[in-house]
Write a sequence for this structure.
């Protein structure tokens, strides 16, 4: 395997792709997470600083997690909804932390991407076109790739930008404990010296609404254990992020090697996969469990999928849950293990 450190920097190619542009739009996947917001924030800083362009980060969907909302608030990360802007006003386009062709990623009609910076395994059907493309699947966070660009240029990273990039690396690599490359470590240490640690603490431990705890009670009641697998479908949820959040918590359960959680939000069923070890890639498990339904992505021990449903009726939901459950048990060889309730 090639190491990221030995490769020459591609930041000059990236800058060339935006040569002569005046207004750059940065896009990401729907429901942006810290790595996409941090990566976008860092890329905006880079392009503004080096090329003097004006930049905008536009998103689709919603931001649900209290941590992510606090990140936006505490760091003043300017975000606009894609539906609120006129895409024709921009003459440069970048995409971070995802690639055109993923189900959770939207490229506005007529937009030709100048740059794609990501760390996910490309979509099965191949990624859509872009002039510059830097996709490194051995790197744990898009924020690390962007930090690498900033370090290669010797740019002084302001505390707000450093904090956003650092938080993106922290969440995608679980504090450098999973999917970590030498670049992630180098970027993390570089940013740690520049980040606003007070802001970082407030982002990591935000206040939570009472409803958050109610949803967790429902999740705990719905959790079933099959040997080394813990599985939970939340049914209909008002917050699709809770699916991933609960998966992270459940992985801490003693004796668990695999966690699969799911929940329906607005006609889409979201699935999260977590694994404790690299016995098998989360991505390949999702491919088998989905069996052609919906779209999925991931790397190493973390994966996610979304399955659009024809309707959000309880019947349609129950049928999907049953299909996924059976394929999951078959895929992990836990079909004969009786289910136990968590609580
Ligand atoms: Mn990421």
């Amino acid at each position: 395997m090639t190491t990221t450190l030995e490769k020459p920097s591609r930041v000059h190619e990236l800058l060339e792709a935006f040569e002569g542009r005046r207004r750059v739009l940065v896009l990401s996947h729907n429901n942006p997470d810290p790595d996409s917001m941090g990566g976008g924030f860092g890329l905006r800083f880079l392009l503004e600083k080096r090329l003097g362009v004006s930049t905008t980060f536009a998103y689709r969907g919603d931001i649900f997690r209290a941590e992510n909302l606090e990140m936006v608030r505490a760091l003043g990360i300017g975000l606009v909804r894609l539906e609120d802007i006129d895409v024709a006003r921009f003459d440069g386009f970048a995409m971070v932390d995802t690639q055109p062709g993923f189900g959770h990623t939207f490229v506005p009609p007529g937009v030709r991407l100048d740059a794609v910076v990501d760390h996910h395994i490309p979509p099965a059907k191949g990624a859509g076109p872009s002039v510059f493309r830097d996709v490194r699947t051995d790197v744990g966070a898009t924020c690390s790739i962007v930090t690498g660009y900033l370090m290669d240029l010797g740019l002084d990273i302001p505390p707000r930008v450093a904090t956003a990039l650092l938080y993106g690396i922290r969440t995608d690599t679980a504090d450098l404990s999973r999917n970590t490359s030498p670049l992630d470590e180098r970027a993390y240490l570089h940013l740690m010296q520049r980040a606003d640690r007070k802001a970082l603490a407030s982002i990591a431990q935000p206040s939570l609404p009472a409803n958050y705890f109610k949803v967790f009670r429902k999740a705990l009641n719905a959790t079933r254990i099959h040997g080394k697998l813990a599985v939970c479908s939340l049914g209909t949820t008002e917050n699709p992020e809770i699916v991933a959040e609960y998966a992270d918590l459940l992985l801490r359960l003693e004796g668990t090697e695999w966690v699969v959680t799911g929940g329906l939000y607005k006609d889409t069923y979201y699935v999260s996969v977590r694994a404790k070890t690299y016995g098998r890639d989360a991505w390949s498990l999702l491919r088998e469990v989905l069996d052609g339904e919906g779209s999925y992505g991931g790397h190493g021990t973390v994966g996610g999928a979304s399955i659009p449903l024809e309707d959000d009726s309880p019947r349609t939901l129950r049928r999907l849950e049953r299909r996924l459950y059976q394929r999951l048990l078959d895929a992990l060889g836990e079909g004969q293990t009786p289910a136990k309730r968590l609580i």
Notes: The chain has a mean pLDDT of 94. The first strand starts at residue 23 and ends at 27.
